[in-house]
Amino acid sequence: MENIVKFITMILIIAMIVNLIYEKREKQKVQEKLLALLYERKFDAFDEVIKSNKTRKLIPYFNIQFMLLNEALMCNDDEKAELLFQQFKKVKLKKAEKEAVALKAFYFYLSVSNYEIAEDYYRDIKQLHNNENILDLDRINDTYIKKGYAYLDQTLKESKNNPMLLSMIADMYLNKGDLDKQKEYEQKAKLAIEKL
Q1: Which of 7, 11, 64, 158 is the most buried (most CB within 10 A)?
Q2: Angle between helices 2-39 and 61-74 (to 10 degrees)
Q3: 24 lies in some domain
């Protein structure tokens, strides 16, 4: 009798391990398929897979919602993106998840010129990083939200032929009121883009 109990216990443990391995592989396959469909911009197929029971069973809620957010941003569906950002505020997220959402939200609200909300997310990001210096975000926040030029000297030193930084320098000069320098750096940014 004792041998039978040991045998059954061993069979159950093996079955559990096999099931865990199977679920892990299936989860990975589904995630890879969803990411490939997004990358290939096959949104109808993506919607079909993400709404399936199999996906809902294997993929955590945050991952599903975050992929839906990426789809909304790729499709320029601002209404859906805003709705998803609001939903993320209502659920408890891990620190890494909060940071990922806050970064997406910061750039999204910046792109739609909603600087007040963008600045709220900027503050969230700074808190999540324990107020470590996040130069790119600080520089973007100062230039585009505060309409400042606090990072002008530093950006001039770093710019070289980086079209993005050259364009930002032009915007800093615009904020400063130096229109001649603004035009000069706009031209430099255009030339740098042409060289790429």
Answers
A1: 64
A2: 10
A3: no
- Is the distance from CB of 66 to CB of 100 less than 8 angstroms? yes
Contact 147, 171 (CB under 8 A): no
Asked if the structure places residue 173 within a domain, the reply is yes
Expressed as residue numbers, the domain containing 187 is 148-196
Which residue bears the tokens 């399936």? 52
Instruction: Residue 166: name the closest of 144, 191, 188, 137 by CA.
Output: 188
Residue 192 located in a structural domain: yes
Number of structural domains the chain divides into: 1
Residue 174 forms part of a structural domain? yes
Residues 88-139 have pLDDT tens digits of 999 898 988 998 899 999 999 999 999 999 999 998 888 887 555 576 888 8
Q: DSSP for 66-100? A: HHHHHHHHHTT-HHHHHHHHHHHHHS---HHHHHH
Give me 114's structure tokens: 């909603």
Does this model's pTM top 0.85? My answer is no
d(Cα 36, Cα 128) in Å, to the nearest integer? 30
Retrieve residue 45's tokens. Answer: 């197929």
Q: Give 156-177 pLDDT, tens digit per residue.
A: 998 888 888 999 999 999 999 9
